[in-house]
Design a protein that fits this description.
With 74 residues, the protein is an alpha+beta fold. It has one domain. It is 26% helix and 8% strand. The chain is elongated, with a radius of gyration of 16 Å. The mean pLDDT is 91.
């Protein structure tokens, strides 16, 4: 996660903080180990996510902008 976008995930003031709950349930779904469980969190609304990210794009480094482009050679 680029540092410029981290506030969207960790800040309680983030307009999409509900996408990243601190507490959530898990479903072992027949598995034995907790790390195998399915995390029960809501699906992310792509349009809302992209809209929330838009103001932060100017804070990305040039390398991050290239990496995130559809035409990246990486």
């Amino acid at each position: 996660m680029p540092p410029a976008l981290r506030p969207l995930m960790v800040s309680s003031d983030s307009v999409i903080s509900d996408f990243y709950p601190h507490a959530f349930e898990t479903d072992l779904n027949g598995k034995k180990n907790e790390w195998e469980a399915v995390v029960l969190i809501p699906f992310i609304n792509q349009a809302r996510l992209l809209e929330a990210m838009q103001p932060y794009y100017t804070n990305l480094t040039e390398e991050e902008k290239i990496r995130n482009s559809m035409f990246s050679s990486n």
